[in-house]
Amino acid sequence: MSSPHATRHLIDRLRAVGLDKYVQLPQVADASTVPVERVLPTVVAETYVQLAACKDKLAILGEPMSTPAVRRATFMKNVRLMLDRLEGGVSGNYNDTFFDDTENRLQARLGTAESEFQDAIEEVSIVDGTAALDMSTPEVASVGDFVEVFNGEWVMNAAGETIRDPNVKWELDQVTQVETTSNEVLTAKHFKREWRDSSEWRFPPPTFANIVRQRYVVKWKRPMRALFEMCQTLLLEFVTRVTGSMKCKPKLQAHLNHVAHDMLESLSTAALVELDKLIETECDPSTLNLRLGQVLLGLRTKPLIVKLDVLSGNNDATSVSVGAMKALLKRHFTEETNSNEDLLVKELHLAIGAYMAVASKRFVDEIPKLLNTKYIQPFLSAVRNEASETSDQVLGQVLMDDVADVEQYETLSNQLKALEAANTLINAHLFPSPY
């Protein structure tokens, strides 16, 4: 154990380097009777706390901004740190202590938003095989288009509400006139005569496109906009977190935050234009994806497969007689074969279902990619370019030292010297050199 004399000697040396201005030291009378081991823990702990706080304050204050070169070097150092963290958040490279806070992991939060977008698109892209095109939709077909129309009466249900008769089917017909004042669509029975003897039971492209556009694609716009708005909100919030984490002058911090926010706002309009263009493209349905044929075949054969499963008791190893198979097939195709128009309606629903299964997945993939290439990456480039073109005049405004800064820098520098000198003395006492 150290002697009281050693304790007093150490306290005197710590006081000589000025530690007593920042850390409370034992009185001389106490130091003459207290061993060093009982004094040091409190002194060491307080010295470390003061040393860390002093370094943080100096880091925020920065070195004296005495010349344009020093100001630009300091500015670019902070810009590089900002860009590193922005790019790390976007790419998911969380190799900075800044990302220890999970709220700062932008890529993960964007991924959550994209998953919600995918779910929303899938929900509005489900094709009901028995549903028909409701001509009350705000978008009216053009003359010559083939559409599904309701040919029944209005009835009153048990609740006293007037509804369309649920027992009456929709049927296909051709638009012959559109009333511009009331948006009513008038049709004639041309379609049946034109297609009754056709060898290819299919729908002309305008009908298919009308239904895909009016019932499904137009509903993609809201989830798409919601994803964009969430992306914009997350980016704005992330920029604020990044600039707020930087140890620099408050004016510089505010300037960088303002520049980044301005870049995001200016790019948002162009990004929305690109998103709307993609929606317009999807309104003209087309695909080269071979999966379309596979899905369509699966939809066509699904009713028959279900009946075969019932016949076999859901056991593929079950032996079934040829007679039973023939009876099932005959019953199946008898049920499927109604009027020519019914066949066309079923074929249309199958084709739309197959197309939407392919197109919705394509759309879900394309939108996040487009946001990245037309919004996020241009934002990073814009911030980098804007920073490199910052004038000396602007740097003088955000980095110039005032009288208070100079005085604070001198005070903190003196405090740092005293604390580091005291730290050296304490370490020398705790870990004396063997030589």
From TrEMBL:
<dbReference type="GO" id="GO:0006897">
    <property type="term" value="P:endocytosis"/>
</dbReference>
<feature type="domain" description="GED">
    <location>
        <begin position="345"/>
        <end position="434"/>
    </location>
</feature>
<dbReference type="GO" id="GO:0003924">
    <property type="term" value="F:GTPase activity"/>
</dbReference>
<dbReference type="InterPro" id="IPR022812">
    <property type="entry name" value="Dynamin"/>
</dbReference>
<dbReference type="GO" id="GO:0016559">
    <property type="term" value="P:peroxisome fission"/>
</dbReference>
<protein>
    <recommendedName>
        <fullName>GED domain-containing protein</fullName>
    </recommendedName>
</protein>
<dbReference type="GO" id="GO:0005874">
    <property type="term" value="C:microtubule"/>
</dbReference>
<dbReference type="GO" id="GO:0008017">
    <property type="term" value="F:microtubule binding"/>
</dbReference>
<dbReference type="GO" id="GO:0000266">
    <property type="term" value="P:mitochondrial fission"/>
</dbReference>
<dbReference type="GO" id="GO:0016020">
    <property type="term" value="C:membrane"/>
</dbReference>
<dbReference type="GO" id="GO:0048312">
    <property type="term" value="P:intracellular distribution of mitochondria"/>
</dbReference>
<dbReference type="InterPro" id="IPR020850">
    <property type="entry name" value="GED_dom"/>
</dbReference>
<dbReference type="GO" id="GO:0005739">
    <property type="term" value="C:mitochondrion"/>
</dbReference>
